[in-house]
Amino acid sequence: MPAILYGGLDFLFDYLMNGEVKHFYSHIIQGVCFGALVGFGFPYLTGKFGPRYVAKIGKSIKPDLAENEQIEVEGPANLFRGIEGVGGKLFLTNERLIFKSHKLNIQNGQTDIDYKHIAEVFGRKTANLIDNGIRIKTTDRKEYDFVVGDRDLWIERINEKAR
Looking at residue 107, which CATH number applies to its domain? Predict the structure, then answer.
């Protein structure tokens, strides 16, 4: 079905833009190629890189911890580094707040925020629409913008540690 739809639309646009159809068979070949891509390629790629793959990546994210440091809370998160929303995990430990990115990002690595450097934590709207963001301001005037699930829990727990 996608092949017929694509081929028909391609044919229609060629006719509307040029006033005539010069290569009817090219539309059929393009439709068949598109149908094969959508019919076979897309299901293959989503099966290979779909939710199971993403969940596997999430389980493999482990922060670099100090000797006696222990993770108390962890969850999926994004940290905005410039315009990129870097995906990974946020960890609340007994010593600091840690964000560790997953390997599919352009900007990789671990970001550590010591509790004693946290000046303020408050909720924010992601894209000025969704109430799932946290902004952390530090005493050295840095700002960290995160997207998390259960934002209120994260704000409460970080504020408890930062006192």
Answer: 2.30.29.30
DSSP annotation string for 70-83? -EEEEEEEEEEETT
> Do 45 and 77 belong to one domain?
no
Say if CB 124 and CB 130 are below 8 A apart: no
What's the predicted TM-score (pTM) here? Answer: 0.64
pLDDT digits over 13-36, tens only? 667 776 666 666 776 777 777 777
Helix 42-49 to helix 51-59 angle (10° resolution) is: 20
122 φ, ψ to 5°? -150, 160
